[in-house]
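Hi support team,

I submitted a single chain yesterday and got back a structure, but I'm not sure I'm reading the token output correctly. Could someone confirm the output below corresponds to the sequence I sent? I've pasted both exactly as they appear in my results page.

Thanks,
R.
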Amino acid sequence: MRGYIRSKGKQSWQIILDTGQGPGGKRQRHYETVRGRRSDAQRRLNDLLVSLDKGTYSQSGRLTVADHFQNWLKGYVKTNCSPRTLDGYQSIIDVHLIPALGSIKLKQLHPQSIQAYYGKACESLSARTVHHHHRVLFQSLKYAVRQGYLGRNPAELVDPPAPRKKTMRTLTPGEVEVLLESAQSSHYYPVIYMALSSGLRQAELLGLRWRDLDLDFLSISVNQVLYKRRGVCLFKEPKTAHSRRRVSMTPKLAIFLRGYRAQREELYADLKQKLGLDALVFTGIEGRPVDPCSLTHAFTKLVKGAGLEGVRFHDLRHTFSSLMLLRGAKPKVISEALGHSSVAFTMDVYSHIISGMQEDAMALLDGVLPAGVVKNSVAKMSPTLQKLALSPCSSVG
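Hi R., thanks for writing in. Yes, this is the structure output for that exact sequence:
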């Protein structure tokens, strides 16, 4: 018999389940108490037997939070998320969550313990960072609920710290000129110019091949990205369907890329090679993929020398979007160009710019609507109506 039920008192039943041999060959048993009717205990026993047959059984009562984290990383994150996401989650779990919560039994993880961790973590970490820890913990516990280890996600009952919205740094048209002038002698000038002109992410720019550019029809296809993981540059597909997209380019960018390609073809010809369609648009000095860290370091040094200290490479993307909005481009068009998941997300990210455009919008409306004409209609009213119309507290009823 693999499992049976015995009475433990009034409305209390104990399930004893034979779960097989342990590492040392000793028979292992699962003990669980169910309160209610015998039929409730029988249903629970049946569920356990099914989980044994399917190979999904786990002694959840003995499972610690640390054990669950590792199961989640290996069983879900590794197969459903990118390697970069896996590395990020693993780091947060190993460095922060396991030292603070890992020794607690999963079934005994209460909201109070989680809330206490957030309070302690906020003493040394930013609210944004702790909020990201909450997202990782929430998702892992959500997985535990789906697997039947928990009845409810305790992270749902916790109030994570609200991250402060960062002030977005964008370049003015004048600052754009200063940056491009300072970058002209840099090996990275082409990628900087294209970042400002297209709004592509750094990883998308570094993954571009010549076959992804249509200089006749002025379009860019984002089909692969380049990331650096554990010191190695890797190419992979864009993370979402929205990121895999076609983006229009300006005529000026097309002219620039034609000239840039001609230079690259001359360089390849000197090396007795041909610049093929699968060749990367932007490469390092030795023709290898551009190291993202090297580009970031060189850009930081460049903007500091140009008197624009504090500007990140990613701010070129924000500058592109801001200039587009200020020139009257519709949020939906910009959202599609940026590869955002929704127009609402774009509106939220650039809400401060959109709100600042109200004065311009009112000026446009003022130019369209005719001037109003004030008529002395009050004089034509009866004395009673005049009194009501001129009274500041007049009401009808």
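A quick pointer for reading it: The longest helix spans residues 127-146. Let us know if anything else looks off.

Best,
Support desk
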